[in-house]
């Protein structure tokens, strides 16, 4: 799946254990979007048409087409054999010839950047937020962060505050997406591990209401965006 010059719009970004993360370039490019649209099935094309504005159309087409290519390559299947279903709260899963297959994935995008996380099994969540100014940090923070996180946010100002806000938020959003809880989970009831709040790039997390499941957390941020990955640690790996 390439344009006439042989280019693709995604590239390998990071590999963490058996999870591969890909970056998707979502810059405006009518040629690439046309190529991406051509790989979508009829259901996905109908979904594409339902978006009212060019930006969401572009992000959906480019991310979904890249995901299709990566999964087909992993599973050695043809593009027209791959479809997607949705779990109870809307989290998608892959099917080949109508059968659910063992592969985990999650998609996120913000501005010009999309990230795809693909693993062999287990639950995965990923989130990205393009770096930008944000006026309503204090108002939003009160509803999404815990007491320790709020205290630490109040101790910093300016760009440092914006950076901390998005770093914390992407970790929380990745966890929510990995769990597949949608909007039903109150993110103020759990906190990002203290080590990560102090600057560590990796941590382990346990939801208070699910003590039997451990989650590996990875900070994927760079100068362009804040991003985080959360994935379920297999029970066999827990001592």
Q: Enumerate the spans where pLDDT stays under 50 for 5 or more consecutive residues.
A: none
Strand content: 25-35%
**Coarse structural class:** alpha+beta
The CATH class of the largest domain: Alpha Beta
Integer count of domains = 2
Assign a percent range to the helix content: 25-40%
CATH-derived architecture of the largest domain? Alpha-Beta Complex
Report on the biggest sheet: 4 strands, antiparallel
Give the overall silhouette: globular
Write down the secondary-structure element order.
Answer: EEHHHEEEEEEHHHHEEE
What features would you describe in this structure?
The chain is α+β, with helices and mostly antiparallel strands and 239 residues long. It has seven helices and eleven strands. It has helices at 30-38, 42-50, 54-75, 137-144, 147-154, 158-179, 194-197; strands at residues 10-16, 19-25, 82-86, 92-96, 99-100, 104-110, 113-119, 124-130, 202-205, 215-219, 225-232. It has a four-stranded antiparallel β-sheet, covered by helices on one side. Helix 1 (30-38) crosses helix 3 and helix 2 (42-50) packs antiparallel against helix 3 (54-75).
Short description:
The chain is α+β, with helices and mostly antiparallel strands and about 240 residues long. The protein contains 7 helices and 11 strands.
Key features?
globular, 7 helices, single chain, Ribosomal Protein L22, Chain A, alpha+beta, four-stranded antiparallel β-sheet
């Amino acid at each position: 799946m390439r344009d006439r010059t042989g280019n693709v719009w995604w590239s390998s970004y990071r590999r963490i254990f058996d999870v591969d993360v890909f970056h998707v370039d979502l810059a405006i490019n009518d040629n690439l979007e046309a190529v991406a649209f051509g790989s979508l099935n009829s259901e996905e094309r109908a979904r594409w048409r339902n978006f009212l504005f060019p930006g969401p159309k572009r992000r959906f087409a480019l991310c979904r087409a890249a995901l299709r290519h990566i999964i087909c390559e992993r599973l050695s299947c043809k593009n027209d054999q791959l479809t997607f279903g949705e779990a109870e709260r809307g989290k998608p899963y892959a099917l080949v010839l109508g059968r659910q297959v063992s592969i985990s994935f999650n998609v996120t995008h913000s501005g010009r950047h999309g990230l795809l996380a693909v693993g062999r099994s287990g639950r995965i969540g990923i989130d990205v937020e393009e770096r930008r100014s944000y006026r309503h940090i204090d108002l939003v923070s009160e509803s999404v962060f815990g007491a320790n996180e709020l205290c630490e946010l109040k101790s910093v100002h300016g760009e440092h505050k914006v950076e901390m806000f998005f770093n914390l938020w992407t970790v929380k959003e990745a966890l929510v997406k990995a769990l597949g809880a949608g909007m039903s989970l109150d993110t103020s009831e759990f906190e990002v591990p203290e080590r990560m709040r102090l600057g560590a790039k990796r941590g382990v997390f346990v939801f208070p209401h699910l003590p039997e499941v451990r989650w590996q957390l990875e900070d994927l941020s760079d100068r362009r965006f804040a991003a985080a990955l959360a994935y379920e640690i297999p029970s066999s790996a827990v001592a």
